[in-house]
Amino acid sequence: MRLIHKCRTVFVCALLLIKSVNAQSYNSRLTKINVNESSDIFNSDTLTINRAVNMAIKNNPELQMLRMEVSAREAAKLQSGLSPNPEFEIEAENILGSDDLRGFSGSEITAKMSQNFLLAGKLSKSEKVAEANVSLAEWDYKEKRLEIITNVKQVFHQALSAKLLIKKNEELINISNEFLANLKKRVNAGKISPAEVSRAEIIFNSLQIELTKLQSNYHLAISELESLIYEPDFSINQLIGDLQYPLLLPGYDSLLALLENNPKLKKFESEFEKQNALLDLEEAIGVPDLTVSAGYKRSNDIGANTFLIGASIPIPLFNRNQGSIQETRIRSDQKKSEYNSIKNNLVMRLNLLYRKFNALTEIGKQLQTNSIPKAEEAFRIIKEGSLVGRFTVLDVLDAERTLFDLQNQYLNLTSEIQLVKIEIENLIAEEIN
Predict the structure, then answer these.
(1) What is the distance between the alpha carbons of residues 375 and 61, in angstroms, rounded to a whole number?
(2) 354 has a pLDDT exceeding 80
(3) Domain count of the chain?
(4) Which phi-psi region, left, alpha or beta, contains residue 297 (left: φ > 0; alpha: ψ -120 to 50)?
(5) Are 124 and 149 in contact (CB under 8 A)?
(6) Please, where are the H alpha helices in 110-193?
(7) Which domain range does residue 162 map to?
(8) Residues 111 and 178 in one domain
(9) Using CA atoms, how far apart are residues 47 and 157, in angstroms rounded to an integer?
(10) CA angle at residue 433 from 248 to 359, to 5 degrees?
(11) Strands 238-240 and 46-48, how do they pair?
(12) Confidence band of 33 (pLDDT split at 50, 70, 90)
């Protein structure tokens, strides 16, 4: 915008010299601005926004790490449902002694098998905790996936906008070159002062500097986009897309209901399930486990065999796991507070974005249906009138400046609305068409 304001004088004179420029055709393209011409061909180095999103989801290393985390937690779930292994014990007494206990003649050999039985449903409750952990890992993956999609769309959109600005400024520089050549001819003919050419050259140089800055911003956006899609052998040479946006959003209540689909909120369903499962497990841990044993005993000194059977269980006199139970209850309340905090922030953000979108689209409608058509008509009348002496060049400049400012205001507005739309889609985890 700053660049365009600097060169408005050069631009309007060029408009008067180049009759092929038509303001009405510019406005007809504002609602759908395509960076590429209709002859563009989709090839291996061409990137659309859908292709960029798919490549980023496929290749992103953080997503790959989170997918492996889901698999790891599924393995942990399998482990949590396994019972303890039985224990086998063998013991020999009264061996290698003295006198009557020399060698093995007076030995007693005992072989025993014991099994620990987890009571109070500890295994099933451990599985529920592990299952909730798997679900949480899946939600972490979905949350990161949505974040990557949003980032790719935003950067892709920024690259498209930069490409469009570069294209517009290159057109402007071409027009300025023609205008500068005409000025030099008029200087040689003695019709204008050389100072006018010097002034035009200064403005032209500033156009070249601003164009270089825009090209640098575009290449930075492309580099960031290539980093997001994470495809080392892929080089972006062409972007295909537009800056089209919906004129209306779904109602605020509908968006508010869709907000519950945001992974940051949705994962709390699994979080609450985990907390409940943890509380059940900690209470179950407070119940002692039963150990049952059975065995065989051989007394060599009397040549007799006997069988053994036994059972043991800890007495929950001091440790009933009461500290862990209390901690789990506190953690559960903590998660509820965390949920309310995150939801409040998301609702507030949605409200702000919804109001901003409606305000921007309303301004856009006024520009497109009222301000720009009136400015075009005024510019046409004043430009035609100036040819017969009814208006001065200053009048033409003022009319053109008004039209040019309105058109670029609409263009910038279109870009801003698109960014707001992408943010809202991120909040509701759903694309708005």
Answers:
(1) 52
(2) yes
(3) 2
(4) beta
(5) no
(6) 122-188
(7) 3-83+118-286+321-428
(8) no
(9) 12
(10) 25
(11) parallel
(12) very low
